[in-house]
Amino acid sequence: MEHSRNDFVYEVARMYYEQNATMDSIAQQLDVSRSTISRLLSEARDSGVVQITLERRDEDSSKLERAFSAHFGVDAHIVTGDAVSDVHRGTQIASVAARLLTNWMRPGSVLAVSAGSTIQAVANSLPSRHYPGSSVVQLHGSIGPLRNVAHGSSQAVLGTVAAAFGAEEHPFPVPAFFDFATTRRSMWHERSIQRVRAMQSHADIALFGAGSFRGPDRSWPYTSGLLSDEDLDELRREHVVGDVCTVMMRPDGSSHNIAVNHRTSGASRRELAHVPRRLLVAFGASKALPVLAALRAGIATDIVIDDVLAHSITTMFPSRKSTRRLDSP
C-alpha cells in the first residue's frame, strides 16, 4: 500500500460513507479483498475516523429549526432527547457540534476558538482527524487557571482541538480583560499581537459559547474574579445579559458604549463578521437571554442547542424577523 495506514483507512471510509460505494467495488478499485475492506471499515469506526450519531428527529424539532432560520437566518441544530441531567445533555450537544466542525474542516483551515466548559466538551468530543496545514487560534485572551474555572481554560481548549485535528496552535498571549483600555490599545500595536489578530480575522470557522451574566448559573467572566465589583455594577446598569468571546451584550444584541468592552481582548461582532462559519454552542434554559442576544446581533451563522433552550428562546421571539446586521453599529 502506497498510503500510510491511517490515510488508507480514511480513504476506504470516505469511499464507503461519502461516495456510497459498495465494499466489493472498493475492494476492486484498491486491489484488496472484500474482507480487508470490512476490517478497515471496522477500524475506522473503532478509531473515531467514522462517528455514527443517532439523533431523534421529530416534527417539533423541525418546526423549531425552521423558526430559528426564519427569525435569525441561522442554520439551527436542535438536539432533542430524554437526557435527565445537564451533564448528559451537554454531552449530546458537544457530540453534534464536534461532528459539524469535523465535517467543515479542510486541510489548511483556520479554526478560531473561545474558552469555557461547553467548548471544552466539544473539544473533548472531536475524533482524531488530521488536516495538514490547519491552524487553531484563540478568539480572546487567556483564562485559567482562575478562581471558579475548573476546566475549559484557553490553553486546554486550544491544545485539545489542535491535537485532534493535527493543527498548529496559535495562543493569544494577552489577558481576557485588560485593567486599562490604554493598555489594550498599546498591545494592539505590537507586531506579535497583530499577527494573532490577523489570523483570527482570516479564520474559516469560529467556535464559541455564550456566557450568562444573570441567574444562578453565571459564567466564568463574572465569577472568576477578573472583573471588579465596579465592573459588575456597570454591567447591571447597562442591562447586560451575557457575552460572546468576552464581549458584553444587552438583550437586543447591542454592545456599544459598555466600558468593559473597551478592555476586553475578545473578538467583536465586526471582527467575527469576516469568519464564514460561526458556530454557537449552548444548552440549558439559563442561556436563553445571552443566546437570544447573540442571535439578534447576527453573531452566529450556525447554532447547536438543546430543545429546552430552544423552547425558552421561542417564548421571547420578536413579532417579526430581526433586521440587525452583524456589521451594524
UniProtKB/TrEMBL annotation:
Pfam families: Sigma70_r4 (PF04545), Sugar-bind (PF04198). Signal peptide: none annotated. Residues 59-313 form the Sugar-binding domain. Gene3D superfamilies: 3.40.50.1360, Winged helix-like DNA-binding domain superfamily/Winged helix DNA-binding domain (1.10.10.10). Residues 14-46 form the RNA polymerase sigma-70 region domain. Keywords: DNA-binding, Transcription, Transcription regulation. InterPro entries: NagB/RpiA_transferase-like (IPR037171), RNA_pol_sigma70_r4 (IPR007630), SorC_transcr_regulators (IPR051054), Sugar-bd_dom_put (IPR007324), WH-like_DNA-bd_sf (IPR036388). Belongs to the SorC transcriptional regulatory family. This is Transcriptional regulator.
